[in-house]
Amino acid sequence: MPHRVLHFTATALLLMATWLIWSGHYVFLINTYGVLSVIAVVALGVRLGVVDEEGQPFRLLPRMLLYLPWITWEIVKANWDVAKAIVSPGMPIHQRLVRVKASQKTDLGQVLYANSITITPGTVSLDVRDNTILVHALTQGSYEGLLTGEMDKKVAWLEGEG
Amino acid sequence: MFLVATIAVLITMALAFVRAALGPTVFDRVLAVNVFGTQTVLLIAVAGFLMGRPQFLDMALTYALMNFIGTLAVLKFARYGSLADDEKRA
Amino acid sequence: MALALDILSWIFLLSGATFAIIAGIGVLRFPDVYTRSHAAGLGDTLATLLVILGLLLQSPDWMVAVKLIMVLAFVWFTSPISGHALVKAAYAHGVKIDCEEEDAVSH
């Protein structure tokens, strides 16, 4: 029960902060609209069952700050690779379908891994089941990068002790 | 410089539009519309700076939200033939 | 100093614009929906990042900067979800992939 109250409060505070940042008009009427909107959205979230630990993985935040620069650099490198494939006249693409292991323990960890694969251009996740992810790779380089399993280890580390 | 970026984004939108018109499958069209939508977000943001009115960013975020929901809605409709049902119909 | 920031901002905007056009060419040029989704990822990730970074250096106050970062975060969070939904729908619908399936689980 205290956990539910915590997530409930955290959601409401985050939504209210978002409202205040985007609004820019701090008068009573507009702020009242804000409070009413926050109540409506939290009620919808509770009805959908998303106001819980999985929806607010705050414990991942410290490691996420280290993971974000790493994934951004991976995205930049992958973009360069795919851009080269697009502009070269011979279009050197080599499509592959491969099932890779997802060693994360929780659903959230596997979702993070699948999304990390998809957001990196050159690899896109097609299907997630039985702790494996079916991946479509565009070039030889993206295929080999996937097989090293570096991203899998990074996301498992990010997930921590689930 | 904002003008150059605006023109480049417009060119990308035109390319995506050609792909949406060519198809051939419904998924190619949804993909093209999704690219078109992301470029629209960038266009609104850059145009806001071009005209000296960065308040346009509010619209850019709203457009990003609608583009995302719209893509998922069209895909769900293409797959299930309805937006309300979770089960695949026979 | 202001000039240096302007030049850096222009470099970001121009390279972002270049990547956007390359993504558009890829969406037009690649042979099927799976390969095109990779090209679309180009426009969603690096083009957006570079254009937003370019605008960030020109933002007049911190509120605009926060909004720019939120737009970037939102596009980056939603792009893989819609991309995955798209290729999964195409795969489930039976759109052919131009390669052999490898079923081996590898690391």
Fold blueprint:
The complex is a heterotrimer of chains A (162), B (90) and C (107).
Chain A lengths: L1 H22 L4 H21 L12 H27 L8 E6 L5 H13 L3 E7 L2 E6 L2 H8 L2 H10 L3
Antiparallel strand pairs in A: 1-3, 2-3
Helix pairs in contact in A: 1-2, 4-6
Chain B lengths: L1 H21 L3 H25 L5 H25 L10
Helix pairs in contact in B: 1-2, 2-3
Chain C lengths: L1 H28 L3 H24 L5 H31 L8 E6 L1
Helix pairs in contact in C: 1-2, 2-3
Q: Kindly, what is the distance between the CA atoms of the first and last residues of chain B, rounded to a whole number of angstroms?
A: 54 Å
Strand order of the largest sheet of chain A: 1-3-2
Largest sheet of chain B: none
Order of helices and strands of chain B: HHH
Q: What percent of the residues of chain B sit in helical stretches (DSSP H or I)? A: over 70%
Structure description:
- The complex is a heterotrimer of chains A (162), B (90) and C (107).
- With 162 residues, chain A is mainly α.
- In chain A, 62% of the residues lie in helices and 12% in strands.
- Chain A folds into two domains: 2-48; 59-159, no CATH class.
- Chain B has helices at 2-22, 26-50, 56-80.
- In chain B, helix 1 (2-22) runs antiparallel to helix 2 (26-50) and helix 2 runs antiparallel to helix 3 (56-80).
- The radius of gyration of chain B is 16 Å and the shape is flat.
- By secondary structure, chain C is mainly alpha-helical.
- Chains in contact: A-C, B-C.
- The interface between B and C is large, with 43 and 48 residues.
- Strand 1 of chain A pairs parallel with strand 1 (101-106) of chain C, so a sheet runs across the interface.
